[in-house]
């Protein structure tokens, strides 16, 4: 590990307990910054309501840390929108945001568009499939942005149990993202959960970043933020344990391919490689190939979008 990363781990890796809620609230009052929480959601009716309810109770009613909760529905066919609204979130459908640009499927697309329908100086992203959710996830990653003006982006770090075994989740992280980062961007080797969906950042940073539309958004954001603001502007906070729905092996393969492609684009812009992944499923006549397109599209920095610029002027 680079000496720079060892120093970073000692100075930019914290626990949620390092910033008690009262100190975070005091920093919010002193800096007069607003906080938006965004939940990208696709068929998450079983979990999204509980997450919204916990945030509203703990961080809006009990303590005024969060100013708005926005759930961006990316095309759910279940009751995700109704459950989220009933729990107190403002629900916006992905296709209603920036309608002149046809929406692409993918998580990164939703996060990118969310910048147009939120107002917070700090934007906090939380996946909508978390179980046994604690508001420490939000307090932990928002805290450093309120207390330390030199920090621009904060990732949550946590243990990810799989089938009851501690630390066995995050398979794509260990098999794809961590090797890529260690080999090509060793300054980012200190991130415990580089692909985690819980992170917060200053709007002034997010609006300058391109957003891969799919699964590559978290890796792309880390790499681009490193180049834009430097390692010392990035941080991570230990928030405990993250429990969520786990994907099957083939879904993980598609995620890994998208992440590899995102890295590849950053390593050599313009180098064309076939952006597809073939997998196999057993059918009536044996193993049958299934070919999936790999997410390769990226959205430009939001600051370049006319509708966003006009909103800021207004």
Multimer state: single chain
The gyration radius over C-alpha positions equals 19 Å
Query: How many β strands by DSSP?
Result: 14
Query: Count of helical segments?
Result: 11
Instruction: Look at the structure and give the mean pLDDT.
Output: 89
- Report how far apart the termini are: 47 Å
The largest sheet is:
8 strands, mixed
Determine the fraction of residues in helical runs and give it as a percent range: 25-40%
Structural class: alpha/beta
Q: In percent terms, what proportion of residues is strand? A: 15-25%
Please provide the ordered H/E string of secondary-structure elements: HEHEHEHEHEEHEHEHEHEEHEEEH
Physical arrangement of strands within the biggest beta sheet? 1-10-7-8-5-2-3-4
Shape: globular
Question: What do you see in this structure?
Answer:
The protein is α/β, with parallel strands linked by helices. It contains 11 helices and 14 strands. The chain has helices spanning 3-12, 21-31, 48-61, 80-87, 107-114, 136-147, 171-184, 203-206, 217-229, 249-267, 306-313; strands at 13-15, 35-41, 68-73, 90-93, 122-125, 130-131, 153-159, 199-202, 211-212, 234-241, 243-244, 276-283, 286-293, 298-299. It has an 8-stranded mixed sheet with strand order 1-10-7-8-5-2-3-4, sandwiched between helices. Strands 6-11 form a two-stranded antiparallel sheet. Helix 3 links the parallel strand 2 (35-41) and strand 3 (68-73). The longest helix is centred in the C-terminal third of the chain and has 19 residues, at 249-267. It is globular and about 65 Å long. The model has no long low-confidence stretch (mean pLDDT 89).
């Amino acid at each position: 590990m680079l000496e720079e990363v060892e120093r970073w781990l000692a100075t930019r890796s914290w626990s949620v307990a390092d910033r008690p809620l009262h100190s975070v609230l005091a920093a919010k009052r002193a800096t007069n910054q607003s906080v938006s929480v965004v939940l990208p959601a696709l068929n998450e009716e079983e979990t999204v309501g509980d997450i919204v309810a916990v945030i509203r109770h703990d961080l809006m009613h009990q303590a005024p840390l969060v100013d708005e909760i926005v759930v961006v529905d990316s095309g759910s066919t279940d009751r995700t929108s109704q459950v989220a609204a009933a729990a107190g979130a403002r629900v916006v459908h992905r296709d209603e945001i920036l309608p002149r640009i046809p929406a692409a499927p993918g998580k990164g697309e939703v996060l990118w568009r969310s910048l147009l329908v939120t107002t917070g100086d700090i934007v906090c992203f939380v996946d909508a499939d978390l179980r046994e959710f604690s508001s420490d996830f939000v307090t932990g990653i928002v805290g450093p942005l309120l207390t330390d003006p030199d920090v621009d982006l904060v990732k949550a770090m946590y243990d990810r149990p799989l089938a009851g075994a501690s630390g066995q989740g995050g398979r794509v992280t260990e098999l794809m993202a961590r090797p890529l980062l260690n080999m090509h961007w060793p300054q980012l080797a200190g991130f415990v959960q580089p692909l985690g969906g819980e992170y917060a950042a200053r709007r002034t940073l997010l609006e300058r970043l391109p957003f891969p539309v799919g699964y590559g958004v978290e890796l792309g954001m880390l790499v681009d933020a490193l180049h834009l603001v430097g390692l010392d502007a990035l941080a991570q906070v230990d928030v405990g344990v993250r429990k969520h729905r786990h994907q099957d092996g083939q879904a993980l393969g598609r995620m890994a391919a998208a992440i590899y492609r995102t890295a590849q684009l950053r390593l050599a812009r313009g180098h064309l490689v076939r952006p597809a992944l073939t997998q196999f499923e057993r059918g009536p006549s044996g193993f049958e190939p299934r070919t999936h397109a790999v997410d390769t599209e990226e959205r430009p920095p939001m600051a370049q979008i006319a509708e966003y610029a006009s909103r800021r002027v207004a």
